[in-house]
Amino acid sequence: MTDEIIKQLLTDTASSCKNKGGWINLAEFGIALKAKGFDLKTTGHIKLLHFLSSFPALVDVKEDTSFEPPVPFIKIVNAQQSAKGSAAQPGTGFTKQKPLLFQWAWMKDFKLVLKELSEFALPEQWYYGPPRQTDYFPILANYLIYTFIRLKKENKVKEEGNYAAFNTGLVDKKYEPIFALFEGTTNYTQKWRFSSFCVAGEERAGKDLVSKFKHLPERAHYFKNTADMIYDRTSGELSYDVKHVFIENTSRLPLDFLEENCPKGFIIKDTSKMSFEERTIYFEQFGAAIEADVKKYRYMKGRLDEAVKLALKRIDWNFKTAIPMYFPTKNKMSLLLPLAMVNDDKVDIALVVERTQSGNYLGHTILPLSWSYSNARLVTRPDSDWLIAKEIILADEDEQV
Questions:
Q1: How far apart are CA 188 and CA 56, in angstroms?
Q2: Angle, alpha carbons 140-141-142 (nearest 5°)
Q3: What pLDDT score does 97 carry?
Q4: Neighbouring C-alpha atoms within 13 Å toward the C-beta of 331
Q5: pTM across the whole model
Q6: Where is pLDDT greater, at 340 or 49?
Q7: pLDDT in tens, 44-89
Q8: Residue among 175, 189, 172, 178 nearest 147 (CA)
Q9: Gyration radius of the chain's alpha carbons
Q10: How far apart are CA 210 and CA 85, in angstroms?
């Protein structure tokens, strides 16, 4: 599907949705897109918001913080839309949701920018699933967007006169750092516009970088102590929130595992054609049913305990089993442990653990493998035998607005 076809699809879909002043509830927009035959997984993206961010000139995004949690809305820029009825209306807490990078700079056609960077950098698979020809690089998009956020927090985005730059954290085929160079502009709402990627001193952009910046921008830093990047098996015990895993995050559990452990009286349903809201309600009810069935809950806890024990054994055999990751929304570091919930030889989900002040480890939550990879890639390319981009198949439950 070409960009032009996608843009037309987005515009047509928006025109058929209920809206208030052109603003459409993102969940409702996603349902309408799926009804038109659009499958987000075919783009390699795991979040509709990230996919829409590939078209910053067409789609504007905001969130309504008067709701808890905040509700995202989208608007097709310059589209002539007429209200089709009373939609969910943004309240007084309406705030900008567009990624910080796009607020700071005009990124041209972001898809082409990502393609340029993927070809410039050391070869790497920037999408999920088997190797194939594609123009979509969701892992790279997530990497660039959240790396920029981290760099801003560390004050490492440099501005000198009419130029700005930051270190992408990636290297070229000679292992030289790749920088993103920007120039000032008055043609857009942003102060800066993307110019090019470059290596210091090479080509015109690289020469401009060196001549304008006395000290070249530094790459993002995540760990204060490199020892924190390794799971210390000589430290304290690992505890984890079982209720949070099974009751509050039922939708993240493997479907095979849920089907094998269906609580008494609960009816398994096909979620592939459910809307976002329907699936949310379904898994909330599933979690409540698990909690009510004490015998099944106890059995599932036993399986989780066994999966954690196996993960720790794998760490004993290879310390690289525990993978460091950065939580962008919480601005904190954690480690990922593999959990095989159905078969011991197949990892289904990841347990996010953090070392506490006492030295013990605490498991906070579970993540789908796609989310785990995206967060881990911010720190470094995972050198792992269980978290591999080409082996990650996106499921409907991975799709989050």
A1: 12
A2: 90
A3: 64
A4: 8
A5: 0.78
A6: 340
A7: 666 787 778 777 778 888 776 665 566 788 888 864 433 333 344 4
A8: 178
A9: 22
A10: 56
List strand residue ranges (DSSP E) for 77-200, in order.
94-96, 105-106, 158-160, 163-171, 177-184, 192-198
Tell me the sheet residues that pair with 24. 74
- Domain map of the chain by residue range? 3-76, 100-212, 228-378
Q: For residue 182, which of 191, 173, 170 has the smallest C-alpha distance?
A: 191
Extract the tokens encoding 382: 């995972």
The single residue listed with the structure tokens 């038109």 is 36
CB count within 10 Å of CB 281 equals 12
Q: Which range, 123-132, 158-167, 215-224, 243-252, is most confident?
A: 158-167
- Tokens 């409540």 locate to 288
305 token code pair? 């305990």
Cα(123)–Cα(349) distance, integer angstroms: 26
In sequence order, the β-bridge partners of residue 64 are 71, 94
Residue 221 to residue 50: CA distance in whole angstroms: 24
For 22-36, write each residue's pLDDT tens digit: 888 888 888 888 888
Q: Taking each helix axis from N to C terminus, what angle separates 110-120 and 138-153, rounded to the nearest 10 degrees?
A: 90
Q: How far apart are CA 380 and CA 147, in angstroms?
A: 11
CA pair distance 91, 63, nearest whole angstrom: 10
Query: Which residues on neighbouring strands pair with residue 101, listed in sequence order?
Result: none
Give the span between the Cα atoms of 143 and 158, in whole angstroms.
Answer: 19
CATH 3.30.420.610 given to domain 3-76 = yes
DSSP string, 345-386: TS--EEEEEEE-TTS-EEEEEEEEHHHHHHHHHTTS----SS
Tokens of 376: 């881990």
The amino acid that residue 40 corresponds to is: L
H-helix or E-strand spanning residue 285: helix 276-292
Strand order in the sheet with 238-240: 238-240, 361-368, 349-355, 332-339, 323-327
Specify the DSSP class assigned to residue 399: -
CA 185, distance to chain mean position in Å, is 30
Q: Can you spell out the DSSP letters for 307-325?
A: HHHHHHHHHHH-GGGSEEE
With beta carbons less than 8 A apart as the criterion, state whether 321 and 354 touch: no
The DSSP result for 125-154, as a single string, is --SSSS----S--HHHHHHHHHHHHHHHHT
Higher-pLDDT residue of 66 and 238 is: 238
Two tokens, residue 367: 């993540």
